[in-house]
Amino acid sequence: MRGLSRTKLALWRGLGYRNEAVKKPTALVALAVLLVLACDDPPPTAAAVPASAAEAATAKPIASATPKPAASTAAPTPSIQVLKLTLTSDVKQKEPVDELTQAAPGQRVWAHVTIRNRYPDARRVSLIFKVDGEERSTVDLQIASSWSFRTWGYSTLRASDKSGELTVEVRDDGGGVLSTAKLQIKVQNPHTK
């Protein structure tokens, strides 16, 4: 075996290539194989072709073996949706610091919203703050086109709001309600923490 070149050794072992350039399939062969494998249409068979014109007139159409694309594979329709709505006492580093279960009179309540905007351009959403059904404030926010856009707004409860319910609605630019969150207003007992 000593003194044999790789080419001679390959010929001796029956590998059949004569020079180094032919060791691997060329890019053209690989491309041809990929094209054959990627073809969706099956080759026509003799059974699919009617033998005579009479058979062609009475033959039922043969169902295609290739599946039709589902409606879900089409381009998604532009939409805007609320992924998360949190009522919190503050927002730090673009995140809510806590999640409120109740609010006290005079307290500032933040609404932190994570929104998905699949429109190609920015859209407006509004945060509507209501106390016992009465609209107190509206905060308009611009939502850039994004898979997950975080934004927030706040309203401060009045000192006279001793009880009731705070409702925050997220509405789109057409006025449709995207999400709602509710919070009880209670005077906090100074002896409990």
How would you describe this structure to a colleague?
- By secondary structure, the chain is mainly β.
- It folds into two domains: 6-58, no CATH class; 80-186, Sandwich (Immunoglobulin-like), CATH 2.60.40.10.
- 13% of the residues lie in helices and 38% in strands.
- It has three helices and ten strands.
- It has helices spanning 6-13, 27-38, 53-58; strands at 80-88, 91-92, 95-96, 102-103, 108-117, 123-131, 134-143, 146-156, 163-171, 177-186.
- The longest helix has 12 residues, at 27-38.
CATH architecture label name of the largest domain: Sandwich
The computed structural class is mainly beta
Q: Give the strand order, joined by hyphens, for the main sheet.
A: 4-10-9-6-7
Assembly form of the protein = single chain
- Terminal Cα separation, in Å? 89 Å
Helix % is 10-25%
| Tally of domains | 2
For the biggest sheet, the summary is:
5 strands, mixed
Task: Specify the CATH homologous superfamily of the largest domain.
Answer: Immunoglobulins
Average predicted confidence as pLDDT:
78
Indicate the overall shape: elongated
How many helices?
3
Which CATH top level class of the largest domain fits?
Mainly Beta
CATH topology of the largest domain: Immunoglobulin-like
Beta-strand segment tally: 10
Radius of gyration, CA atoms, in whole angstroms: 34 Å
Share of residues in strands = 35-45%
